[in-house]
Design brief:
This protein is an alpha/beta fold. It has ten helices and 15 strands.
Length: 287
């Protein structure tokens, strides 16, 4: 029973295998190609029973375009609906970017295992994000702030390509004002107005005050970024089980049937997308 994915052992109030109509309540432009949508299920019973863990994702469907897996970027404690931060990358996401308030998409899920909340409680937390990879981390960070007394010091290290590509600017500023929180941001290329750090996010690790003995690290971003961050964390003395990361794979069905997201004997959509580095290093050609 211990090896069964979290998605399948929870109480299923609504059918997670079929899309349910959800209405767009608000649209916020984060960057030129990333928007955050706030959605509410049209069926109030589903809206009331829908629950998820930070780190899980939903499959978003658009008529005549298909489906795409999108990480949930809001906390389970967010009371105004469900938030998805979507980067325009193809036909379906491009169509969603043209949607406005009042229009509808289909949502099914949630899927995946999510972050190990019980294991994170009582520890200092180091979040390392790159690009849109900050979206699933945002879900967990906001959850941590809603349960602040259950967690220690929080450090957020974030890297973007340019200042224009920085997502969740308002959130980053708000997090930095919280007690016992430090937020550090870097970009690959600055501009005439940028006064902050320039370089890969790993450079921030050298200046952040991190003590591996009581810190859990959660990483999300491009695979190459994750590889370099993990390499530096291991050199700093982090244990393999204390490094937690998401893995990117082409997830289609969400239930381990299509095989698109298989890694060895595991399926990212069911056994992941969250893994410890101890698990990841056993997978073939992941990082």
């Amino acid at each position: 029973m211990e090896d069964r994915p979290q998605t399948l052992v929870r109480k299923m109030v609504a059918n997670i295998y079929q899309p349910h109509p959800a209405s767009i309540q608000a649209v916020k432009e984060e960057t030129g190609d990333i928007k955050t949508l706030t959605l509410v299920f049209k069926d109030q019973e589903i809206q009331g029973s829908f629950s998820f863990r930070p780190g899980q994702f939903v499959l978003v469907s658009v008529f005549n375009c298909g489906e795409a897996p999108i990480s949930i970027s809001s906390s389970p404690t967010f009371s105004e609906g469900l938030q998805l931060s979507i980067k325009e990358m193809g036909l379906l996401t491009g169509e969603i970017h043209r949607y406005t308030e009042g229009e509808e998409v289909g949502l099914r899920g949630p899927y995946g295992n999510g972050f190990p909340l019980d294991e994170l409680c009582g520890h200092n937390l180091l979040f390392v994000g790159g690009g849109i990879g900050l979206a699933p981390l945002r879900s967990l960070i906001e959850y941590v702030f809603s349960k602040r007394s259950e967690f220690g010091r929080v450090t957020v290290l974030y890297g973007a390509r340019t200042p224009r590509d920085i997502v969740f600017k308002d959130d980053l500023a708000a997090w930095d004002r919280e007690k016992d929180v430090r937020v550090m941001i870097t970009v690959d290329r600055g501009d005439s107005e940028w006064k902050g750090d320039i370089g890969p996010v790993t450079h921030l690790l050298k200046r952040a005050t991190i003590y591996p003995s009581n810190t859990k690290t959660i990483i999300c971003g491009p695979p190459v970024m994750i590889s370099y961050v993990v390499f530096d964390l291991l050199k700093m003395g982090f244990a393999e089980d204390e490094i937690i990361s998401t893995l990117e794979r082409h997830m289609k069905c969400g239930v381990g049937k299509c095989g698109h997201c298989s890694i060895g004997s595991k399926f990212t959509c069911m056994h992941g997308p969250v893994f410890t580095y101890r698990q990841i290093k056993e997978f073939p050609s992941v990082l």
